[in-house]
Amino acid sequence: MLLMHGWPQHWYLWRDVIPRVAPQARVIAPDFRGFGWSDAPRTGYRMDQLKRDMLALLDELGVEEVAVAGHDWGGFVGFLLALEHPERVRSFLALNVIPPWPARDRKVLRDSWRFLYMPMLACPGLGRRVGRAAAARGLRDSGLDQADVEAFVSRFRGERGVVTERVYRSFLGSLPALIRGRFSAADLRVPSRLVFGTRDPVLTTRAAQDSAAQTDQLELELVPDAGHFVVDEKPELVADRLLALM
């Protein structure tokens, strides 16, 4: 299993999932470049590069095929792996992320204002300050205790704070191609499931439903008593769904 975290977290996101799935499979839970304890180079924060990092890691470990789970940006990278390298992905569990194909429902497009925080996080100087504040608030909402929240947020100082700006700046640069339809739901050939906490303050249930309706390969499960950090809030459910996809 390849377990990929999102922003603003690192491998520790999976702390309550790993003990539940490790008896059944080998678990690989890396930090993305610039996150956690990985190096933080100046470049390479496009989602395509993070995907290539994961493929290089699997190659180095001699792993040909994996079940993949990804939350937030990790889920986006997981979709890229499933869409572009289906021979490497046995199954895919996405968690509170919207797939990279365009929405069909115009009501989803009217929710675009919810993503206005992205340009702020991408802005030099401002992004790292906003990122620290947003990370602290979001992680407290996820159920982490104060000591763990402080440990996470401390990683946003210095060079690590710049990583947030680089990740979001890189994504905004790739956004026009995604809007034009670089990816299509018809290209998803890997059995996939989207577990979606409906109390997510940014991503809407409507967007998740629109994405899943475009392909039979993506099964949607709505979790009404969870928010964006569904892995933290519902580790048993996440572990069960991951094992079911093995």
User: What fraction of the residues are assigned to beta strands by DSSP?
Assistant: 5-15%
> CATH superfamily membership, which one?
Alpha/Beta hydrolase fold, catalytic domain
CA-based gyration radius? 17 Å
Structural class: alpha/beta
CATH topology-level fold name? Rossmann fold
Overall strand count: 5
CATH top level assignment: Alpha Beta
Mean pLDDT: 92
The CATH architecture category equals 3-Layer(aba) Sandwich
Low-confidence stretches: none
Query: Overall 3D geometry?
Result: globular
The end-to-end span amounts to: 9 Å
- Order of neighbouring strands in the sheet with most strands: 1-2-3-4-5
**SSE series:** EHHEHEHHHHHEHEHH
Report the total helices: 11
Helix content: 40-55%
| Number of structural units classed as domains | 1
- How is the main sheet built? 5 strands, parallel
Summary keywords:
single chain, 246 residues, alpha/beta, Rossmann fold, five-stranded parallel β-sheet, globular
Can you describe what's shown?
It is a single chain. This protein is of the alpha/beta class. The chain has one domain: Rossmann fold. It is built from eleven helices and five strands. The chain has helices spanning 18-21, 47-61, 73-84, 106-109, 117-122, 126-142, 146-154, 159-179, 205-212, 230-233, 235-244; strands at residues 2-4, 66-71, 89-95, 192-197, 218-223. A five-stranded parallel β-sheet has the order 1-2-3-4-5, with helices on both faces. Helix 6 runs antiparallel to helix 7 (146-154). The relative contact order is 0.18.
